[in-house]
Amino acid sequence: MGYFTDKYLPYYTIEERDRWEGDWELVEGIPYALTSSSVVHQETVVNIVYQIKSQLLNCGEECKVIVDIDYYISKDTVVRPDVVIVCQKIEDRLTVVPDVVFEVVSPSSVKMDEHIKYQIYQQEKVKYYILVYPQDLKKIKVYKLDKDGYKKEFEGFEGNYQIDLEKCKINLDVSKII
User: Fold this and answer.
1) Could you tell me which of 143, 119, 131 has the C-alpha nearest to residue 28?
2) No. of H helices and E strands in the chain?
3) DSSP secondary-structure letter at 94?
């Protein structure tokens, strides 16, 4: 961006955003409108939750799978992941770093999910970032955090992937997600 565009870009805080009508994410003060999700998107979210929920019973009572919750990162950044796994106590708002974030990628969300949120989750040290492509590509990509940032650990449309959480392991059957 240039001097003039940076100077005149809108800048908002979460406090302001929380008063708006509609659904919005806010990234470093810049608003992004959320669109209504498709049937395919919602079915994919249900498939993810269905696989994870029963396996979390072995992880302790603090481990939860949560759908479509605002993740408050700073005074000017809040995003809404499709599915998160959190293995620590949370109150009214999600302000702690999730262990796992799933984003169901649609053609309209590619830039946000593959680039902007990728950078945010990496910076916040989310251990696993999983992108699910239920439409054209019909695959998932799993990124795992190491000391140098995210490394792609899995990409495909079938097989199993094991998420290693501190308190337990979650096995994903990829073919049952997409």
Assistant:
1) 119
2) 5, 12
3) B
How is residue 164 written in tokens?
Answer: 């290693």
Please state the φ and ψ torsions of residue 143, each to the nearest 5 degrees: -110, 135
Separation between Cα atoms, residue 24 and residue 77, nearest integer Å: 11
Residues forming beta bridges with residue 32, ordered by sequence position:
25
Distances (CA, A) of 123 to 115, 119, 132, 173: 12, 6, 20, 28
**Along the chain (178 residues), what's the average pLDDT of each consecutive run of 10 residues?**
71 96 96 93 97 92 95 98 96 96 95 98 98 93 98 96 94 94
pLDDT of 32 reads: 95
pTM over 0.90: yes
Rg (CA), the chain: 16
- HSE, CB side, 13 Å, CA atoms: give it for residue 36: 2
The answer to whether the beta carbons of residues 129 and 116 sit under 8 Å apart is: no
Q: What is the amino acid identity at position 24? A: W
Structure tokens at 9: 């870009």
Q: Are 74 and 68 in contact (CB under 8 A)?
A: no
Of all helices (H) and strands (E), which one includes residue 14?
helix 14-17
